[in-house]
Design goal:
Blueprint: E1 29-30, E2 34-38, H1 44-51, H2 71-81, E3 88-94, E4 99-110, E5 115-123, H3 131-147, E6 152-158, H4 162-170, E7 174-185, E8 188-198, H5 202-212
Parallel strand pairs: 5-6
Antiparallel strand pairs: 1-2, 2-3, 3-4, 4-5, 6-8, 7-8
Helix pairs in contact: 1-2
Length: 232
């Protein structure tokens, strides 16, 4: 039943025992196939090599930066990110060879209200559409909800970026709407699509991630046997 205040107006439920959460820190999140570690300048050479596999530069279309002409230019971009606390950047390391293959971050970190966003998802071709990318998202989401106790986990992207929209839905995010003319990126308008997962939804998503990521869900070539959505 909807709760009403003394004036008869509907009000939201009490968030019992709520206290501001701590901010995420530069820490390591370790999984089965990937390890997320604090971004450092030492990651730059291998990251640039991984990104260079995208010879057409298409991965940079919807990002606010790139493509980069050379390793020095890329390293100059990475340098200031290392000490940033919001966004808080991670390098995604492929545990099979110990090399970084992508960058991702927490951002719009709001400890008072328990809201946090995942962003700067900069996957190289070496991890796109793979267990590496899915586990990286799983580790970040799990840490946000279970390690830090946040209530809301956000995903935002260019509303024209269909791969990102589909990825959000595949991972279990709920579409909340589009902010028209939200920002200007590389001189062009960006309408921003908003997605979220909230804490009460996390247990079901966690169980699905855990089941999908098990080794027996993949064949000898690393292809999934069942889709992530099938476990929800």
């Amino acid at each position: 039943m909807q709760e009403l205040d003394d004036h008869g107006d509907p009000i939201g439920p009490v968030v019992a025992g709520w206290e501001p959460r701590r901010r995420p820190s530069h820490t390591v999140l370790d999984g089965r196939v990937v390890r997320l570690e604090p971004l450092s300048v030492a990651h730059a050479p291998d990251l640039f090599a991984a990104y260079s596999a995208d010879r057409a530069g298409r991965m940079w279309t919807y990002l606010a930066v790139g493509p980069f002409a050379n390793e020095a230019e890329f390293g100059a971009w990475v340098g200031p990110l290392v000490s940033s606390e919001d966004p808080l950047f991670f390098a995604v390391v492929d545990k099979a060879n110990g090399k970084p293959v992508g960058i991702v971050s927490y951002l719009r970190i709001d400890p008072v209200n328990g809201s946090i966003e995942v962003g700067w998802v900069t996957w190289s071709p070496l991890m796109q559409r793979s267990a590496l990318s899915t586990e990286a998202h799983y580790l970040l989401m799990k840490h946000a909800f279970e390690g830090l106790g946040y209530r809301r986990y956000e995903w935002k992207c260019n509303a024209l970026n269909m791969p990102s929209m589909k990825a959000a839905e595949r991972l279990g995010f709920t579409y909340e709407g589009t902010f028209r003319q939200a920002v200007i990126v590389k001189g062009r308008n960006r309408d921003t699509a908003w997605f979220s997962v909230i804490d009460k939804e996390w247990p079901t998503l966690r169980d699905a991630f855990d089941a999908w990521l098990k080794p027996d869900n993949f064949d000898a070539e690393g292809r999934q046997r069942r889709r992530l959505e099938d476990f929800r």
